[in-house]
Write a structure and sequence with these properties.
single chain; 8 helices; mainly alpha; 0% strand; 261 residues
Amino acid sequence: MPEPRRAPDGRDAADPYGPDPFGPDEPRDPYGKPDAPGDAPEGGGRVRRMLTSNVTITIAAIAALGTALTVVDLGSFVDDASEPPKAASAGLSTNDMLARLTSASDMDKVAADAVAVAKERAYKEHQRELKRLKEKAKRDAAARAKLKAQQERERLAKSNPSAGQNKAYGKKMNELKGWGRCWPSLLTLWNHESGWNERAENPSSGAYGIPQALPGSKLASAGADWRTSSPTQIAWGLGYIKARYKDPCGAWSWWQAHHWY
């Protein structure tokens, strides 16, 4: 059998574009056939191949762009579970702190005195209850257990993993009030009251938050987020101190004498 005629580059002259990559049973790309008689000259075949290549590249580019857009769009709806949730007050600016102070700094003295009366009454009632339990504990094991449980509840109410951040807010907001010299007094006062825990709730009286507002709902006058926002609670507490004791130095002096403020 005679050998097939070869082109100068070694390809089969009957099929100058090489063997069919799809196999004998697959349909050919119409642009892969050799020009039939009457078709455009060889240059036209090259043009068709170039156009086909350009179309393929364009389609691929459009598909890649569509994929990229899809990824970006979907990414906006996916939460990054690797990042812990941030506190609502995290990263509060100085201007924001000042705005909160302004909204809570003009507490009426009559309102402050009413809070103080409630705190005094709650403190005295608490002391009477502790005294009763201590006296009974000397005779009664159950009373001893109850006293220990109450003391543990009070300890837990002051435990606070976010105390460091809350103290940083307190120090800055205290300075903005012009009370920098009284920072040690404020620090110690609220260490005693709540351990700087924005969720501290006195199990006896129901006093709430860092400044131990009584009732806790009084904090709402400083902001709707009063249950969880340490800056809102601090703003309210500084407003209360100003109306009642003039500054934290005065509030701490009062606390040392009475054990409430």
